[in-house]
Amino acid sequence: MADPKGFLTTGREVAKTRPVAERVKDWNEVYVPGSLLPIISKQAGRCMDCGIPFCHNGCPLGNLIPEWNDYAYREDWSAASERLHATNNFPEFTGRLCPAPCESACVLGINQPAVTIKNVEVSIIDKAWDSGDVTPQPPERLSGKTVAVIGSGPAGLAAAQQLTRAGHTVAVFERADRIGGLLRYGIPEFKMEKSHINRRIEQMRAEGTKFRTEVEIGKDIDAAKLRRRYDAVVIAAGATVSRDLPVPGRELNGVHFAMEYLPLANKVQEGDLTVSPITAEGKHVVVIGGGDTGADCVGTAHRQGAASVTQLEIMPQPGAERNANQPWPTFPMLYKVTSAHEEGGERIYSVSTTHFEGDEDGNVQSLHLIEVEFKDGKLEQKAGTERVIPAQLVTLAMGFTGTDQANGLVQQFGLELDERGNIARDENYATNVDGVYVAGDAGRGQSLIVWAIAEGRSAARGVDRFLTGASALPAPIRPTDRSLMV
C-alpha cells in the first residue's frame, strides 16, 4: 500500500489550468506544464489499495491502478510505467482524453473525493517519455503472417501494436493524410497536442508496423482484394456517420457537422492551412449537442474569436451530485464544466431546434428553438416557449450513428450488420467473413477511447489465435461487455 493514511491526510488536488485569457490565444494544452509532478506522489498516496479495487471494474482495460499508484507514490517511475503499459498501449491518450470511469468507481469516492487516477496516469507516462523508458519493442521472431488494419484510431493502433509485437507483419491503412483517426483530426490541439501521437507512431514504426495514408479501403482498394492479399484483416474504421438534424434550413451555408468543422481547425495547427475555411471569427456560434464533441467545438470557437458561443442540449441539466438511481460504483451523469466551458459561452438545456433562418444569400443567420420536457417517457414541446437566437455558424455535435457504408467497405467484404447498424461479430471479434475481424466503434458503436483501446487489444488476441492456433495476448473485454452504468 502507498500511504496508509494518505486518504485521511491529503485532499484531492488536480492539474492546474492556465489562465483563460492566456490559453484562448493559443492552441497549446490548457494545463500548466509540469504542475502535476510536485503534487502527484501525494495524490497517488491517497489510493486505499482496496481489497476489491472497484476502479478495475470501471476501467475496461483492467488497468492495475493500485499497483501503479503505489509506484508513483514511491516515485519509482520506471516500475510505474511498466505496470501502466502492461494493460494500456497509449496511456498518454487516455490520461488526457478519457472521462475516467475508474474514478467514478473508486472506493474512496463513496464518501470522499476520488483518487486523481487520470492525473497519476498522465504523470507516469509523461515522466516515462522524458526519461527514455518508452522504447520500441520489436518481436523476437516473425510469424510469416500478414495483417491489414483498416483505420488508425485508438482501436486500430492498439490492435496493430499488439499484433506487430506478436510477430505478425502489420500494415495500417488510413484514408486521411495522417495517422491517428479522430485522435488526429477530431480532438482539438488544446486537449491533446499531436506530438503525443507522433512519437507513438514512431515507436510503432520502429517495432515494424507499416502505415499507409490516403488509402480508403472500398474506394482506393477493393475490400475483397485486400482480404486476398493479407492473411487477416482488422476493421477499426470507427463510427464516423454523424447524426443529422433534419429541420427546415438545414441546407443553409454555415450549418456543419462537428466533424466537418473540427478537422479543419486541426489542419491549421498542422500547418496545412493558414486559415480554416469554416471559422467562427466574429460570428455568433451555436453548438447543438452537449457532449464532449460539443465542448470541443466550443473551445475551438473561442480560439477562433467567436462573437458569442451558445451550446444547446435537448436533455435536462444534470445535477452536481449522483442521483439515487446512479449509485456508486456506476458512471454517473453529472453536470460537467470542461476547460472549454470555463472559457465562456452559454449552455441551454431542455431545448430543441425547430428550424434555421438565413439571409438572401443562403447563409444561416438565426436558430429557432423551443423548450422540451419528458412526460410519460416521451419528449414533448412546451407551448409558448419558442425563441430565436443569432446563429451565423452552427455545428452539429449530436453523436454518431454507425460506420461508413458509402465507401463500399461493408458491401465489398459482404459483412453482416447488427440491429444497430454496427458490424456484427462473434465472441472472438470475428465477422461473418473468414479472417476478417472488427474492433472499436465500428463494432461497438460510439464509445470512449478507453473502450476502443480495450477492443483493439481484445480483437488482436482473436486474430492471433486465428493465425497461429493459440495466443498469449490479453483480451480485457468481450464484445458484449458494456460500461458500468445503470
From TrEMBL:
Keyword set, alphabetical order: Amino-acid biosynthesis, Glutamate biosynthesis, Oxidoreductase
UniProt xrefs under Pfam families: Fer4_20 (PF14691), Pyr_redox_2 (PF07992)
Known pathway: Amino-acid biosynthesis
Domain Dihydroprymidine dehydrogenase: 39-131
Entry annotated with the keyword Cell membrane: no
Domain FAD/NAD(P)-binding as annotated: residue spans: 146-456
InterPro entries: DPD_II, FAD/NAD-bd_sf, FAD/NAD-binding_dom, Glut_synth_ssu1, Glutamate_Synthase, Helical_ferredxn
Superkingdom of origin organism: Bacteria
PANTHER family on file: GLUTAMATE SYNTHASE [NADPH] SMALL CHAIN (PTHR43100:SF1)
NCBIfam families, sorted: GOGAT_sm_gam
Identification of the protein by name: Glutamate synthase subunit beta
Organism: Streptomyces argenteolus
Source species taxonomy: Bacteria, Bacillati, Actinomycetota, Actinomycetes, Kitasatosporales
